[in-house]
Recover the amino acids of this structure.
Protein backbone atom coordinates (compact mmCIF):
# COMPACT_ATOMS: atom_id res chain seq x y z
CA UNK A 1 0.00 0.00 0.00
CA UNK A 2 1.62 3.21 -1.19
CA UNK A 3 -1.23 5.75 -1.24
CA UNK A 4 -3.61 7.19 1.35
CA UNK A 5 -6.61 5.74 -0.49
CA UNK A 6 -5.10 2.24 -0.50
CA UNK A 7 -4.42 2.43 3.22
CA UNK A 8 -7.88 3.85 3.95
CA UNK A 9 -9.59 1.11 1.93
CA UNK A 10 -7.82 -1.46 4.09
CA UNK A 11 -8.21 0.32 7.42
CA UNK A 12 -11.80 1.64 7.28
CA UNK A 13 -13.33 -1.87 7.47
CA UNK A 14 -10.71 -2.90 10.04
CA UNK A 15 -11.58 -0.06 12.41
CA UNK A 16 -15.35 -0.17 11.90
CA UNK A 17 -16.26 -3.74 10.99
CA UNK A 18 -18.16 -2.24 8.03
CA UNK A 19 -17.40 -2.73 4.37
CA UNK A 20 -16.77 0.41 2.34
CA UNK A 21 -19.77 -0.04 0.06
CA UNK A 22 -22.05 -0.40 3.10
CA UNK A 23 -21.52 3.24 4.11
CA UNK A 24 -24.01 5.80 2.86
CA UNK A 25 -23.33 8.90 0.78
CA UNK A 26 -23.98 11.07 3.85
CA UNK A 27 -22.45 10.38 7.24
CA UNK A 28 -22.94 11.52 10.82
CA UNK A 29 -19.89 11.21 13.06
CA UNK A 30 -20.06 11.42 16.83
CA UNK A 31 -18.30 10.67 20.10
CA UNK A 32 -21.11 8.65 21.57
CA UNK A 33 -21.97 4.99 21.25
CA UNK A 34 -25.43 5.86 22.61
CA UNK A 35 -26.10 7.96 19.49
CA UNK A 36 -25.33 4.94 17.30
CA UNK A 37 -27.60 2.77 19.45
CA UNK A 38 -30.46 5.28 19.18
CA UNK A 39 -29.91 5.60 15.43
CA UNK A 40 -29.99 1.83 14.95
CA UNK A 41 -33.16 1.53 17.04
CA UNK A 42 -34.96 4.24 15.07
CA UNK A 43 -34.17 2.66 11.71
CA UNK A 44 -34.34 -0.94 12.95
CA UNK A 45 -30.88 -1.75 11.64
CA UNK A 46 -27.89 -3.58 13.08
CA UNK A 47 -24.89 -1.97 14.75
CA UNK A 48 -21.60 -3.07 13.25
CA UNK A 49 -18.16 -2.95 14.78
CA UNK A 50 -19.15 -3.80 18.35
CA UNK A 51 -15.80 -5.58 18.65
CA UNK A 52 -13.91 -2.76 16.89
CA UNK A 53 -12.71 0.71 17.96
CA UNK A 54 -15.54 2.38 16.00
CA UNK A 55 -19.21 1.41 15.78
CA UNK A 56 -21.46 2.16 12.79
CA UNK A 57 -25.03 1.83 11.57
CA UNK A 58 -26.62 2.68 8.21
CA UNK A 59 -30.26 3.44 7.43
CA UNK A 60 -32.14 2.15 4.41
CA UNK A 61 -32.13 5.77 3.14
CA UNK A 62 -28.35 5.64 2.84
CA UNK A 63 -27.39 7.66 5.92
CA UNK A 64 -24.61 6.27 8.12
CA UNK A 65 -23.45 7.13 11.63
CA UNK A 66 -20.02 6.43 13.10
CA UNK A 67 -18.84 6.64 16.70
CA UNK A 68 -15.14 7.36 16.21
CA UNK A 69 -14.19 7.76 19.87
CA UNK A 70 -12.85 10.95 21.43
CA UNK A 71 -10.18 13.54 20.74
CA UNK A 72 -8.54 15.19 17.76
CA UNK A 73 -6.33 12.22 16.70
CA UNK A 74 -9.38 9.96 16.37
CA UNK A 75 -11.29 12.73 14.58
CA UNK A 76 -8.43 13.05 12.08
CA UNK A 77 -8.31 9.27 11.72
CA UNK A 78 -11.95 8.88 10.71
CA UNK A 79 -11.81 11.86 8.33
CA UNK A 80 -8.74 10.28 6.70
CA UNK A 81 -10.27 6.81 6.51
CA UNK A 82 -13.40 8.22 4.86
CA UNK A 83 -11.41 9.00 1.71
CA UNK A 84 -12.03 5.31 0.95
CA UNK A 85 -15.74 6.16 0.60
CA UNK A 86 -15.60 9.90 -0.22
CA UNK A 87 -19.02 10.77 1.24
CA UNK A 88 -20.98 13.69 -0.17
CA UNK A 89 -21.30 15.22 3.29
CA UNK A 90 -20.15 14.60 6.88
CA UNK A 91 -21.82 16.22 9.90
CA UNK A 92 -20.22 16.07 13.33
CA UNK A 93 -22.67 15.76 16.23
CA UNK A 94 -20.62 16.66 19.30
CA UNK A 95 -20.87 18.32 22.67
CA UNK A 96 -19.02 21.46 23.69
CA UNK A 97 -18.47 23.74 26.65
CA UNK A 98 -20.09 27.17 26.52
CA UNK A 99 -17.76 30.10 27.15
CA UNK A 100 -20.17 33.03 27.03
CA UNK A 101 -23.39 34.03 28.78
CA UNK A 102 -25.21 33.49 25.48
CA UNK A 103 -24.20 29.82 25.38
CA UNK A 104 -26.22 27.99 27.98
CA UNK A 105 -26.64 24.27 28.50
CA UNK A 106 -28.96 22.83 25.85
CA UNK A 107 -28.14 25.46 23.23
CA UNK A 108 -27.03 24.45 19.74
CA UNK A 109 -23.98 25.93 18.03
CA UNK A 110 -23.13 25.98 14.33
CA UNK A 111 -19.45 27.03 14.29
CA UNK A 112 -18.48 29.45 11.55
CA UNK A 113 -14.84 28.57 12.25
CA UNK A 114 -12.64 26.83 14.80
CA UNK A 115 -9.35 27.93 16.34
CA UNK A 116 -6.72 25.24 15.88
CA UNK A 117 -5.48 24.56 19.40
CA UNK A 118 -5.66 20.83 18.75
CA UNK A 119 -2.16 20.28 17.40
CA UNK A 120 -3.26 17.40 15.19
CA UNK A 121 -4.39 19.70 12.38
CA UNK A 122 -0.85 21.07 12.07
CA UNK A 123 0.09 17.82 10.29
CA UNK A 124 -2.29 18.75 7.46
CA UNK A 125 -1.94 22.49 6.85
CA UNK A 126 0.17 25.37 8.19
CA UNK A 127 -1.25 27.09 11.26
CA UNK A 128 -2.43 30.14 9.33
CA UNK A 129 -4.93 28.10 7.28
CA UNK A 130 -8.36 28.59 8.91
CA UNK A 131 -10.52 25.67 9.99
CA UNK A 132 -13.86 26.23 8.26
CA UNK A 133 -17.02 24.21 7.61
CA UNK A 134 -18.72 23.80 4.24
CA UNK A 135 -21.11 26.75 4.01
CA UNK A 136 -23.83 24.96 2.02
CA UNK A 137 -24.00 22.11 4.52
CA UNK A 138 -24.28 24.48 7.47
CA UNK A 139 -27.01 26.45 5.74
CA UNK A 140 -29.01 23.27 5.33
CA UNK A 141 -28.50 22.27 8.96
CA UNK A 142 -29.43 25.76 10.20
CA UNK A 143 -32.73 25.59 8.32
CA UNK A 144 -33.43 22.23 9.93
CA UNK A 145 -32.66 23.54 13.43
CA UNK A 146 -35.24 26.28 12.90
CA UNK A 147 -37.73 23.74 11.55
CA UNK A 148 -37.50 22.05 14.96
CA UNK A 149 -38.32 25.40 16.60
CA UNK A 150 -34.86 25.60 18.13
CA UNK A 151 -32.47 28.52 18.32
CA UNK A 152 -28.80 28.24 17.48
CA UNK A 153 -25.69 30.34 17.97
CA UNK A 154 -22.92 30.94 15.47
CA UNK A 155 -19.37 31.89 16.30
CA UNK A 156 -15.85 30.61 16.71
CA UNK A 157 -15.12 27.44 18.66
CA UNK A 158 -11.76 26.77 20.27
CA UNK A 159 -10.55 23.21 19.71
CA UNK A 160 -8.00 21.96 22.21
CA UNK A 161 -6.09 18.72 22.71
CA UNK A 162 -6.28 19.24 26.49
CA UNK A 163 -8.97 17.33 28.31
CA UNK A 164 -8.32 18.63 31.84
CA UNK A 165 -7.78 22.39 31.64
CA UNK A 166 -10.59 23.82 33.76
CA UNK A 167 -8.25 24.49 36.71
CA UNK A 168 -5.72 26.45 34.59
CA UNK A 169 -6.43 30.18 35.02
CA UNK A 170 -3.90 31.20 32.34
CA UNK A 171 -5.63 28.98 29.80
CA UNK A 172 -9.05 30.26 30.87
CA UNK A 173 -7.85 33.84 30.40
CA UNK A 174 -6.58 32.99 26.93
CA UNK A 175 -10.06 31.73 26.01
CA UNK A 176 -11.53 35.02 27.23
CA UNK A 177 -8.96 37.00 25.25
CA UNK A 178 -9.84 35.06 22.09
CA UNK A 179 -13.57 35.74 22.62
CA UNK A 180 -14.49 32.18 21.73
CA UNK A 181 -18.10 31.05 21.86
CA UNK A 182 -17.37 27.49 22.99
CA UNK A 183 -14.63 24.90 23.42
CA UNK A 184 -14.34 21.30 22.26
CA UNK A 185 -11.74 18.73 21.22
CA UNK A 186 -12.50 17.89 17.59
CA UNK A 187 -14.22 20.55 15.47
CA UNK A 188 -11.09 22.24 14.06
CA UNK A 189 -9.56 18.85 13.30
CA UNK A 190 -12.65 17.68 11.41
CA UNK A 191 -12.81 20.92 9.43
CA UNK A 192 -9.12 20.89 8.49
CA UNK A 193 -8.83 17.20 7.61
CA UNK A 194 -12.09 17.40 5.68
CA UNK A 195 -10.63 20.36 3.78
CA UNK A 196 -7.43 18.43 3.08
CA UNK A 197 -9.35 15.41 1.78
CA UNK A 198 -12.00 17.33 -0.16
CA UNK A 199 -14.87 16.08 2.04
CA UNK A 200 -17.77 18.51 2.68
CA UNK A 201 -18.07 18.83 6.47
CA UNK A 202 -19.96 20.58 9.20
CA UNK A 203 -20.63 20.46 12.93
CA UNK A 204 -23.74 20.81 15.06
CA UNK A 205 -22.61 21.15 18.66
CA UNK A 206 -24.69 20.79 21.81
CA UNK A 207 -23.63 22.90 24.79
CA UNK A 208 -23.30 20.36 27.60
CA UNK A 209 -21.50 22.39 30.27
CA UNK A 210 -20.22 25.85 31.16
CA UNK A 211 -16.65 25.03 32.22
CA UNK A 212 -15.48 28.60 32.87
CA UNK A 213 -17.48 28.55 36.11
CA UNK A 214 -16.56 26.11 38.91
CA UNK A 215 -20.19 25.05 39.29
CA UNK A 216 -20.49 24.59 35.53
CA UNK A 217 -17.77 21.96 35.08
CA UNK A 218 -19.18 18.73 33.68
CA UNK A 219 -19.77 15.81 36.04
CA UNK A 220 -21.15 12.35 35.39
CA UNK A 221 -24.50 13.40 36.80
CA UNK A 222 -24.73 16.67 34.85
CA UNK A 223 -23.75 14.95 31.61
CA UNK A 224 -26.39 12.27 32.17
CA UNK A 225 -29.07 14.94 32.59
CA UNK A 226 -27.96 16.74 29.41
CA UNK A 227 -28.04 13.47 27.48
CA UNK A 228 -31.51 12.60 28.75
CA UNK A 229 -32.93 16.02 27.92
CA UNK A 230 -31.26 17.05 24.65
CA UNK A 231 -29.34 14.18 23.01
CA UNK A 232 -32.44 12.81 21.28
CA UNK A 233 -33.23 16.18 19.73
CA UNK A 234 -29.59 16.64 18.74
CA UNK A 235 -29.63 13.33 16.89
CA UNK A 236 -33.06 14.02 15.37
CA UNK A 237 -31.86 17.27 13.81
CA UNK A 238 -28.72 15.63 12.43
CA UNK A 239 -30.63 12.70 10.95
CA UNK A 240 -33.31 14.95 9.46
CA UNK A 241 -30.84 17.39 7.90
CA UNK A 242 -28.57 14.77 6.34
CA UNK A 243 -31.42 12.54 5.17
CA UNK A 244 -33.24 15.41 3.52
CA UNK A 245 -30.18 16.80 1.79
CA UNK A 246 -29.60 13.32 0.38
CA UNK A 247 -33.18 12.92 -0.80
CA UNK A 248 -33.14 16.33 -2.46
CA UNK A 249 -29.84 15.55 -4.14
CA UNK A 250 -28.43 18.90 -3.09
CA UNK A 251 -24.87 19.55 -4.20
CA UNK A 252 -22.78 20.79 -1.27
CA UNK A 253 -19.79 21.42 -3.49
CA UNK A 254 -20.35 23.52 -6.61
CA UNK A 255 -17.93 23.49 -9.51
CA UNK A 256 -18.23 25.35 -12.81
Amino acid sequence: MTTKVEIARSWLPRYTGTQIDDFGDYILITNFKSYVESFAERFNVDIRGLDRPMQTATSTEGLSIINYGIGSPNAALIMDLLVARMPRGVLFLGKCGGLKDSTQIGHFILPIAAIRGDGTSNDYFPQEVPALPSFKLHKFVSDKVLAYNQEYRTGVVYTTNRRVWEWDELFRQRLRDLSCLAIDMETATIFIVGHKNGIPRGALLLVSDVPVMPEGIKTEESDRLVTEQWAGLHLDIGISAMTEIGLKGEQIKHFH
The domain at 4-248 is CATH 3.40.50.1580 (Rossmann fold). Strands lie at 26-30, 55-58, 63-67, 89-98, 108-117, 152-160, 182-184, 201-209. The helical segments are 4-16, 33-43, 72-81, 135-147, 169-178, 187-197, 220-248.
